[in-house]
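Kindly review this record before class:
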Amino acid sequence: MNNLAKKGTGVRKFFWILFILAFAVTGVTNFAIDQQFTWFRIVGSALILGGSLLDALLFSKNYRVIHSVSVFTVLIIPFFMVVERTVNNYFLDTPIHWLWPIGIPIALIWIAYLWINIGIRKILHWNMGSCLGAASLLAIPTVIATNTIANQTSVYNIIEMSFITIVVLLSLGAVGLIAGLFMGKYKKRH
């Protein structure tokens, strides 16, 4: 193992030691205050999700984005489940069940969005400009679907409410695709 790899391993170990300490401190604090684990369930779950995402993003040797999206895909719905159950059990008099009608559909929409963008890059081999343009354009139906589900209203109302967002995403998409074309032409010449 070379010196750089040893440093990377040491940094990764230090990273996880900090997360374990944060996990332990918040757990002990919650138990000391409430004599049970209430809000710690949310904080602990968030630490697991965040730590796993950062670990994949910072310490994966190859395919960092794919590893991060894989972690997000696996952990986001269990995280939402913990949040819903904890809030309903400890903080609300009348439970609100939002996971199945709102949380899971929105999570699945964004998971699909992320994987489609990865597919565009990996399968179609588009350059970064074209990929960013496509990601901006794909964000439009993703945002509309998310807001339609979250606000429980019609698509027309969401388009009207999100008009500025849609215009910005269209503009970013056009700029990205145009930049991608120029990047492709430049690469062919050189």
